Amino acid sequence: MEIKVGCCGFPGGMKNYFQEFSLAEVQKTFYSLPKIGTAERWRSQAGENFEFTLKAWQLITHPPSSPTYRKAGIEVKDKEKYGFFKATDEVLSAWEKTREIAEALRASVVVFQCPPSFTQTQENLSNLKNFFGSIERGNLTFAIELRAPWDRELLANLCEEFELVHCVDPLREDPVTAKLAYFRLHGSYHNGRINYKHRYTDEELRGVLEKVLSFEVAYVLFNNIYMGEDAKRFMELLRGDI
Asked: What's the pTM?
């Protein structure tokens, strides 16, 4: 099996990060897309053996009412045409622009992170099927992270039909997909809210390791405040140093 470890971002700065890790999930692409030249520069600076994954632009997954639009300084007209994988020119254009950045980075995985408001409804299910059934993916692997409860059997069938990887926090739930895992560790949870300030204990990291051992390939991406430190400790665990 193969276990790939990295962070959702570049703690310590890109230059140092590229020397310490061989994998990163780009977060910037969720808020607003960088220029193609910027992505190509990152690819060049990282080195040939470095692997990028990235989050899809929020215009695909999130409605304009999301606070992440305000954080990114994005204002759109015809607000009903954005987010929730809607079959609109606006959403499809956002995907094409995301795909261009993925190609510039030579990324392996695109993560579609959905908001908690993206619940299991017939409309949302139809949007998902239309979206993933119509877009071009090339050699990209698609991972979907749902933050609302969905029926696991329905989700498993959806992932099988459209070749999706079910992205989860391994300390909260098991994915419905097998062979390839894409894990994102956000911190601890309390009353449904994420505490990104959580620092993982050695016991928790061993619990993550137990989860990944059942997959042929596992991506383990840390997304908490201490992600750089925790990711390094997890790599030490893999080497048997802790």
From this structure: 0.96
Domain count, the chain: 1
Q: What six digits make up the tokens of 16?
A: 């140092």
**Selection from 183, 178, 238 nearest residue 214 by Cα:** 178
Domain containing residue 122: CATH number: 3.20.20.410
| Residue the block writes with tokens 């099988």 | 160
131 contacts 89 by C-beta, under 8 angstroms: no
Whole-number Å distance between alpha carbons of 232 and 46 = 18
* Residue 81, C-beta contacts closer than 8 angstroms, at least 6 positions apart: 88, 89, 90, 91
Percent of the chain with pLDDT over 90: 95
Q: How many helices (H) and strands (E) are present in the chain, helices listed first?
A: 10, 10
Can you give the C-alpha Rg of the chain in angstroms? 17
